[in-house]
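Open question from group meeting: does this chain pack into something compact, or does most of it stay loose? Before anyone orders reagents, we agreed to write out a predicted structure and look at it together. Recording both the input and the output here so the notebook holds the full record.
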Amino acid sequence: MDVMSTTVEFARMNGLGNKILVIDMRGRRDRVTPGAAIALNADPETRFDQIMAIHDPKAEGTDAFIDILNSDGSKAQACGNGTRCVVQAMAAETGRRVFTFQTVAGILNAEEHADGTISVDMGTPVFEWNHIPLSEEFHDTSRIELQIGPIDAPILHSPSVMSMGNPHAIFWVDRDVMSFDLERFGPLLENHPMFPERANITLAQVTSPSSLTTRTWERGAGLTLACGSAACSAAVSAARTGRTGRNVAITVASATPPGILTIEWRERDDHVVMTGPAEWEWSGTVDPTTGLWLRHDEPETESRAL
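Structure tokens returned:
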């Protein structure tokens, strides 16, 4: 009789402080349940922004299918920081450096470089209002009518909106992004009627023709230390509106310490390539149904492969 083990291997990792759980579901038919995700997030030791659940490949030519969950148990279509963590874990396991993954948002190609940084091809941005999606038609989504605060002196207004596998709204600000009460405004904007599938909300400050500083409230996760797809969306939106060129260094202000992602919006094919670090913290086993977990002993000597 084919009986699956109740537990699987997992790793606690981070991408610029974006808290990631990489869970190895290969060789299994079940999935990480929303209840398990909620239970894991309720524990301070395993609190996370996204779960990256690695499944056996579904499409020919891919290395794995990645199922992505937010901390509230909902599904996410894309997570660039989490994808870098998956690459680091699988590179340690296989000795390879180049991978192709499938997600619900499409195919992602990724590569670990000799210096340890990891590049992820996040695909092409989507600007059409009904594909982001928005609930109202806008011919030009580089600036839409949406604001928060007094009508004659809004605190935030006129965001650039797009999809990078998931919906994003970029609000341009002219002062320190940390000076805004994003923890207060984020939930209101994430759940605004303009966004039928909710949205990731990012504050972006242009600091030079080739650099931005950002801070993000993530859909389904809340205020996070970093968000890769949001960094990509901010970089693309900055170039699209003439604020920067197509190669941008993003300083993620909320990361500890503040970290940098480099984003290239390639002219030859419109693909967005994100490059940055990933960090292994510790590993253990977890029940993907209940979220009950156990940390491996001697973390200083443990293997960094799943």
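Observations to bring back to the group:
The chain has a mean pLDDT of 93.
The domain at 8-123+279-295 is CATH 3.10.310.10 (Diaminopimelate Epimerase; Chain A, domain 1).
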